[in-house]
Every structure is written in structure tokens, then in C-alpha cells.
Specification:
The protein has 659 residues and is of the alpha+beta class. The chain contains 23 helices and 16 strands. Strands 8, 9, 10, 11, 12, 13, 14, 15 and 16 form a 9-stranded antiparallel β-sheet that branches. Strands 4-3-6-7 form a 4-stranded antiparallel β-sheet, with no helix packed on it. A 3-stranded antiparallel β-sheet has the order 1-2-5. Helix 8 packs antiparallel against helix 9, helix 14 crosses helix 19 and helix 20 crosses helix 21.
């Protein structure tokens, strides 16, 4: 089925989200021929798939290719990024004993060493170099089985900046990206919101208020449809209090009540009220079109992170008028509630007792700190919780569009979620991210807003993203910097496998060759070099490059990376997966704006010609690798001048702690 035909079928799971049978049907038909999405699905290598076959000892002939997962030899970082995060997530974890913390904390040094594996004397002489910003800073030479390593300083590097270690020999290479550590504990602000009592309403003026001071203005508003998916943890609804049986019902009923109250307060349009009645009515109508479903892939934060998130919420509340002390003001002791059973309308929920006499009930207000921790750590407290995903409207209902009040719609929706209570889990016990924010930018759907991009335009956007991948990585919070569900697109090849813990990434063989930019570039070069390709129509070209067949370049690179091409044949979108889940509406709006602005900016560049014109694949990859390693936020902002405000990069990196 052609891209443009398929994208008519779906847009952000264009089915009834409360209908389990419908969701199953869609998953079977369009979930990338991988069955249900999970970390060990056919779409991703399993632990068994990654394990080398039990054969004779490897030889030099086996040590070929470029990918970290191509087999021995391999590189080891003295302080993997996941281990740095683990110290914050699980401070007493036994794996922390393996880290060279003195060298990191006091000397500001990292060491990369070679693990030759069982290659023995078969291995040719090799050179190990380390580059920072594309410039070689350290090197050493040697051969198996003798020890080979380099030590280098990271004292001058900003958090998240990468030192790139590369081992090369005649016939192959291996590369490992080593990230500079944070200079302060990870920031956990705007990840948690206590629920308000059901009989209280958010202020209409608050729902459509302008963003907080200090955020970059939206310099350019392209008329292009987008889709937003927000992953969060929420309390389940209680029908005995609200009369609602699902999150969608709860939100729509809340919107109805807000609209009624606003009409009663404002009377005729133009009455003396402190908000724009028309703008509020439009935002309410649009937010009522959002859908909710269960996403079991949301992960809980570790206990230590959950406690810190609540502490940070309380500190922020104290700064803003002591709201933490007032949180229990709506508490009604002894109120009886009944937790809904595992209702298909809510999906599979983590249930407590089927009936209970709660001291603190979310929809009555007065949720205490222990229960709030449950919005990050699912094992603490009693209220029933849900792994939620909230999705913006489909094109048939009018896709979200920043040129048509989309910023107000997004802001209103996030503020509603804050009112009903939600949490965005951060670091899990495996030092991976808990939830994420996905932005789909329409590029092929004829009814979603915006013109359809050509194959060359799509490739220009994608290759430009690869070029700035290590820059935009630092726009997100640190637990997303090496998150396997949105793996960085390193120009040197993949360093990720699904089953690895955060501090083990890059340690196992991955025969699936996912997230591999060199293989992707090679496949594109081969396709476009065929004389018959230029004679095909646009739809046929799109199918060959990005179609659903497993052999297409877009499909082979995999979906769990920072920019996903696998949604082109289904939704007609580029899916930007990079960002963390958050309850900061200003941040969400500006990230969505950045994504659509990136497409508009880089569609007109001709990144493809330089790679196609290179004399060989090696030359093309060397060019892309050098550009990626030298790329800076300053360069990105200069390239995007007129599309985003010049302060956008600093805004994101101040939030993430990368500055």
C-alpha cells in the first residue's frame, strides 16, 4: 500500500481509544509487522538474537564491519553514562562499585580500553584515538592480546558533550561515544502535579494564559499539521465521585464544567472578564477531541527519584505561596470510594483493593506525599494508577496546527492534566527514561495540513537531523541522552541493544543492525544510483525508500531512534521521539514548534547531493561523521534563523542542565 494511501488510514492510532478490540486490530495491521510493541518484539533483537553463535574462536576475518555490535573487539568506557545516572537513581546499587569515581569526580578523566575478546594473535595492529569536537586529543596503538587504552580529560566539556573513541584496523572499526558528566544533580522540576478536588475547577484565565516569563517567542508558525503524544502516569477516575469511567470522560466533563462556569461568569462575549472568551471556547472544543489510552511501556521511576520529585514539587510550592501546606485543605476524612475494576475502557490498570476506605482520595483532593510518589514509583501508596498516553486529534478531526491556535490548545491540555494530577516518570531502576513526548510532523498526509515533501526533501531533513543529533540530544533531560527507545543516530553506527541495562549499552552483539546510519546511507546511495529510480513516480520512490517492506532503508534503520521514519507509510509523519515526558506546557509547545520548524528549515537544504556525490560510502560517512562531531548549538541556531528564536537552544539546555 502506498504511503499516501496508508496515511489516510491512520493518524496517531486513529481508532476508538476505549475500544480494546479496535486497538488490537490496528496493532496487528499496522504496527510495523512486529506484533505488539515491546522491548523484545520481533522488531527488536532479543537477548538470544544478540548472542554470538557457539562456534570456533573468532578470527581477524570475523572482526570486520564498523558497528559496535559487529562482534569483537569492543570498547569499554571507565564510566558509562548509564552508571553516572544509576548513582542518582539507585544510590546503593551494587553496580556502582565498578565505577572509577575518583578519576571522574576529582581528576575529571575518562579512560577507554579495548576488549579484544577471544581474537588472540589473529588481530591486526590497531589504533585507538579519541576526538572531541572532531579534533583528535589522544591516541595509542597496539594489537591483541596486549592491553590498549587511552586516558583523556573532560574537565573543559559541558554536560552531555561527547568524546568519540574509535578503534580502527585494516578491515574494520569500532566507535564509542562517551558523555561528559552533569555538574549538578538532575533536575526533576515540572514532572509532577498533585490532583485538585473534583469540585474545584481550574481558572479559565489560567487555562489560556500566556506562557511564563522568559520563554522564547514562537518566531515562525508554519501552517503544517502535527500530532503530539504525551506519556504520563495518572490516577484512575472514580465514578462514585466524578461519575466518569474513563480519562476521556473525566477530561471532557471537566472541560464542560469549565465552559459552563466561564459562560456564567462572562455572560455575553465582550463582557468585562480577564480572559478571551472566544479563545477559551476554541481551546475547550479542541481539547475535547484529544484521546487517551493505556501505554504499558511507560516505566516507573526508581524509589529514590520518586521521593526527590515530590521534594522538588514541595519546594516549588513553598516558593509560590505555601501550596504544599494547603494541599490537604480539600481533604474529607472518611470519604468512601470504590476503585473501578480493570475496566476495558481504562485498559489494564494497577489496582489496589476493589473497595477501600481511603484517608486520601485524588478526586476529593488532599493527596499526601506518599501517594504522590506513586505517580513516579508504582509500588508506593494505594490509589489506583494508570500508565497513560494522551494523543492530539487526527486529521479527520483537524490535526493540531501551531498556525491555528495550536499553542493555546497544547497549553490548555497540559494545564488540564496538571489539574487532575499527573506524573512524568524520570529515571528507572535500570537508568533508562520512564516516559517520553513524541511529536509527529505531517509530511505526506494530504489532509493533515501542509504540503507533501518530496523524497529529496525528506532525506534532507533526515540527514540534517543526523548532523545535529548530538546537539538536539542535549535539549532533552539527561535520562534521554542515551535512552534506547529513542536511540541517538550516531554517524559512526549503532551502540544500542534493547535488552541492555543503561550502564551496559554497547556491550553485546546486535545482529539486527538497527539505528545504523552507515547502513542507511549505503542503502539510500544504492537505490538512488539505479537509473530506473529517477523514472519512477513520487509514490513509488517513497515506497522504495520508506515503505513498510522490511527491506526499505527507512524500515531497516528501526523505529526506536531519535527521529523515526517508520511512521511515513502509516501516518504520513516524521516522528520526533527525542524528548522526555513533562508537565511544563511552555516546554512542550516550544519542543513541538522546534520539530515542525526543523522540517520547514531543512527541507530546502541539499544534504543529499554531498553524500551521493562522495567518491565512496567511506567518504560519505567520513563527511557526515565529521560534521556531526563538530556541530554546535550556535551553528544550529544560525542555520534555523527566522524559523526559531535565537535563544531556543539555550532555553532547552538550561532546562536539561546541559549548560
Amino acid at each position: 500500500m502506498h504511503c499516501e494511501t496508508l496515511c489516510h488510514v491512520m493518524w496517531l492510532e486513529d481508532v476508538d481509544p476505549d475500544n480494546e478490540a479496535s486497538r488490537e486490530l490496528i496493532m496487528q495491521a499496522l504496527d510495523d509487522a512486529a506484533g505488539a510493541e515491546n522491548c523484545t518484539s520481533a522488531d527488536e533483537p532479543s537477548a538470544t538474537d544478540d548472542a554470538p553463535a557457539a562456534t570456533d574462536a573468532p578470527t581477524q576475518q570475523d572482526a570486520a564491519g564498523h558497528s559496535y555490535h559487529s562482534g569483537p573487539p569492543s570498547l569499554a568506557n571507565s564510566m558509562p553514562w548509564g552508571l553516572m545516572l544509576l548513582r542518582e537513581a539507585v544510590p546503593d546499587h551494587s553496580a556502582l562499585l565498578a565505577g572509577d569515581w575518583e578519576a571522574l569526580d576529582e581528576k575529571k578523566q575518562l579512560t577507554v580500553s579495548v576488549d579484544w575478546g577471544p581474537l588472540g594473535a589473529e588481530m591486526a595492529p590497531a589504533q585507538l584515538v579519541v576526538r572531541q569536537g572532531g579534533i583528535e586529543i589522544a591516541s595509542a596503538s597496539g594489537r591483541a592480546p596486549h592491553a590498549l587504552s587511552v586516558c583523556f580529560s573532560i574537565a573543559h566539556m559541558a554536560p552531555g558533550e561527547a568524546s568519540v573513541a574509535e578503534l580502527s584496523w585494516a578491515g574494520g572499526s569500532r566507535t564509542l561515544h562517551c558523555l561528559a558528566p552533569l555538574r549538578a544533580p538532575i533536575r526533576l522540576c515540572e514532572l509532577l502535579s498533585a490532583p485538585s478536588a473534583w469540585d474545584t475547577l481550574p481558572s479559565p484565565a489560567t487555562l489560556i494564559a500566556p506562557p511564563r516569563a522568559g520563554v522564547p517567542p514562537l518566531a515562525y508558525l508554519p501552517d503544517r499539521g502535527i500530532g503530539v503524544e504525551m506519556e504520563l502516569i495518572t490516577f484512575a477516575t472514580d465514578p462514585l465521585i466524578s461519575g466518569c469511567f474513563s480519562k476521556e470522560e473525566q477530561i471532557r466533563e471537566l472541560l464542560r464544567r469549565v465552559g459552563t462556569a466561564a459562560t456564567q461568569a462572562g455572560g455575553e462575549v465582550g463582557a468585562d472578564v480577564d480572559y478571551d472568551v472566544r479563545l477559551l471556547e476554541a481551546a475547550i472544543a479542541r481539547c475535547a477531541l484529544w484521546t487517551h489510552e493505556i501505554d504499558q511501556h511507560v516505566m516507573f521511576s526508581s524509589t529514590a527519584i520518586a521521593k526527590r520529585a515530590v521534594e522538588e514539587l514541595n519546594r516549588a510550592a513553598e516558593v509560590h505561596g505555601g501550596r504544599a501546606a494547603e494541599r490537604m485543605s480539600n481533604h474529607r476524612p472518611g470519604a468512601a470510594t470504590v476503585a473501578p475494576a480493570d475496566d476495558p475502557a481504562e485498559g489494564n490498570v494497577t489496582s489496589g483493593e476493589s473497595s477501600r476506605q481511603d484517608e486520601c482520595t485524588p478526586e476529593l483532593g488532599g493527596v499526601d506525599d506518599v501517594e504522590l510518589e506513586r505517580l513516579h514509583d508504582g509500588r508506593i501508596g494505594r490509589p489506583t494508577i494508570m500508565k497513560s498516553e494522551f494523543k492530539s486529534p487526527t486529521p479527520e478531526k483537524g490535526a493540531l496546527n501551531l498556525a491555528h491556535r495550536g499553542a493555546e490548545e497544547l497549553g490548555c491540555m497540559v494545564r488540564l492534566l496538571r489539574h487532575i494530577g499527573a506524573g512524568a516518570p524520570a529515571l528507572s531502576e535500570t537508568a533508562n527514561g520512564g516516559c517520553s513526548l513524541h511529536v509527529h510532523v505531517n509530511v505526506c498526509h494530504p489532509d493533515a495540513g501542509g504540503d507533501c515533501l518530496s523524497c529529496r526533501e525528506l532525506l534532507s531533513v533526515y540527514l540534517s537531523w543526523v548532523r545535529f543529533d548530538m546537539v538536539t540530544m542535549r535539549f532533552a533531560r539527561p535520562w534521554m541522552w542515551r535512552e534506547p527507545s529513542m536511540a541517538p543516530l550516531y554517524a559512526t553506527g549503532s551502540e544500542f541493544a534493547w535488552h541492555e541495562r543503561g550502564w551496559e549499552q554497547g556491550c553485546s552483539r546486535n545482529n539486527g543492525a538497527k539505528y545504523d546510519i552507515p547502513l542507511f546511507v549505503n542503502a539510500v546511495r544504492e537505490l538512488l544510483a539505479q537509473p530506473s529510480f529517477a523514472q519512477l513516480g513520487r509514490r513509488e520512490q517513497l515506497d522504495l525508500l520508506f515503505g513498510s517492506e522490511p527491506s526499505t532503508p527507512g524500515r531497516r534503520i528501526g523505529r526506536y531512534c531519535s527521529l523515526n521514519l517508520c511512521r511515513l507509510p502509516t501516518y504520513g509523519t516524521l516522528e520526533f521521539r527525542r524528548f522526555q515526558g513533562t508537565l511544563d506546557d511552555a516546554l512542550i509547545v516550544r519542543w513541538a514548534h522546534f520539530c515542525v520548524a526543523f522540517v520547514e528549515c531543512f527541507r530546502s537544504t541539499d544534504e543529499l547531493s554531498r553524500l551521493l556525490g562522495a567518491s565512496s560510502l567511506e567518504a560519505a560517512i567520513a563527511t557526515l561523521r565529521a560534521e556531526q562531531e563538530r556541530a554546535t548549538a550556535t551553528e544550529l541556531m544560525e542555520r534555523m534563523a527566522g524559523f526559531v528564536d535565537a535563544s531556543t537552544a539555550d532555553f532547552f539546555m538550561h532546562d536539561s542542565g546541559a549548560l
